[in-house]
């Protein structure tokens, strides 16, 4: 089995619980954040099977249980520490085994040590850095769409330092360093440093990379056995941000996963779901939210295929099933269309699970194709490809691109969002236009005048949307220059990253003349970056190391090593599993990543025989990107950013005195709280297992669902919709007003010791209040169409741990260490 971040996190959680229980029954106590982390990769039955008698929430009222030990699986947030102290003071359990998901702030640790019963009740204390959410085998998210406005909104100066420390070490949103640490990797850190930057946020990646390097170095100092011995080449962590490629979130992508998330009302929560009618036209028809997850082998096998290939494969697989089971259809039955297949499936009650799975994907594919035709996406995509790559289908500089755009903006079949995307792509392609021309294009497209701010806000991310009338144009250098012969890295790598700042030339058309694939010439800049990395050509000036390697030829030797492995004949690898010693490359995309960029990581993994893992704050759909770009003009106080809210407090009822059960009745007191979940587990075990496809359709279940953000109990309701607005344009069309928050990073002083996340520690003050970086809360980032992200935005402590006899931080733990386009 190849690398799976889902499996890695699942394995370390189960092993940690098993090593603590050691055959004795214990209670598992979670908080709101850790429950989401655990539920994302581990089922309740798997936990209960590790001698866990009951699973409880620390923020909720619970029965006293002084005859049983408890395993506390907690995130080190101030209000969670208060809840823990309340349990210790009340002696709620016999002993406490505490597992933190990140290193607690020294102030928080002192709060625990000061509890009268702490030394007597705490049996063990350790740190397990797993505060992130694996979504796919090679994709990790932090469920934090609030990261985007914090990093790029001009009004968030006072939040940016705290947020970058949170990104680097620990928070409700996630942990860059812990993704690699949890997998036993001590990577070399590189970061994106744009040439001739036009935006103040250009320093974002360099400062974030130094924060991450400090955390990695600090963890290595505290753990002498880290990293564990391995035969793998040294891993690499590349930190970049959304400004590297502004084209990717705007261009239509026609692979199955990206197209579905762009066009369909897929809901993002703790689960990723699509609402549809099951058994349509039958007596037992019902509406249901169908989950898209890693156990769905149809989804996993097809998500990175071009939609044309996906439909062909679905129809081919079903036709083979009918050929092998002729009694399910008459002689005239033939799976020649999606509708014909759906009609035939109505007569297969014996294969309900297979039927529901194929109904889901056939329905999604059909709805995508309907919108593809009704909204004239072939014409829209053709123009987008030319603007994003800078070349037409014949690899020539386009002529009359503006005329093509104007005709499309006048077409009622094209949606308003697609018209706005075309305008944004056009101004990036031109390297800026006169502000009045932007207003004319918006008026011609029938879009509101306040969409001008959305277009102009591209400048906050390194784009150049406006250009003075008398301002001289400067030629911009592409981030990844084109191969003059037109030979890209492989058959699929024809596109190019339009890039953050200039929005200029990218790739071009490969040798594929198929009309469908002519609409997929563009490739994200992330793919071009990985190609350059694995070929040993990644520019060290644009992607420098924090600690440069001693051997200047190290990159070239690693490139040759991977090439030799990839060049082995197919028979040499037959009957052999994927090697465990493949180099691992981690890419962190601050500000959100697209599904096309996730696909690029899988393709690079397969092409270069590496394991590329993409980590990001949240997944971007085009609708969410447009919304978040527009919000950069909104008063930041209207955004209700969780990090700016007052710190959360522990529930008062946890501190209320309760009578402990008498020692003469230990079992009678403990059984009432333990029995229900054990009974539920037995009942679940008698029910049929989750979705598994029949043999003709291949594949078994895989561990762990995908995930998305959700709003839990006690969280604040979503902020109401906000009108688009913001500052007007200044002289020459450049917007006036405050600069983005990362402007202040130029004066930031970084602590060299990897200390805590207190807002006042070292360097400039950013207005954060409270020790340990508190600032929590839960928020909702709503999107007015198909995307509705819900996120945990609480703060928490971080930094170095306190030294105490009971505090054995970071004790040594045993850790163990798809897909390209068809054409």
Automatic annotation (TrEMBL):
It comes from the Eukaryota. Residues 493-510, 697-711, 725-735, 752-779, 792-803 have a biased composition (Gly residues). Residues 657-686 have a biased composition (Low complexity). It holds the Pfam family Sec1. Residues 813-823 have a biased composition (Basic residues). Gene3D superfamilies: 1.25.40.60, 3.40.50.1910, 3.40.50.2060, Syntaxin Binding Protein 1, Chain A, domain 2. Residues 477-513, 657-823 are annotated as: Disordered. PANTHER family: VESICLE PROTEIN SORTING-ASSOCIATED. Belongs to the STXBP/unc-18/SEC1 family. This is Sec1 family superfamily protein.
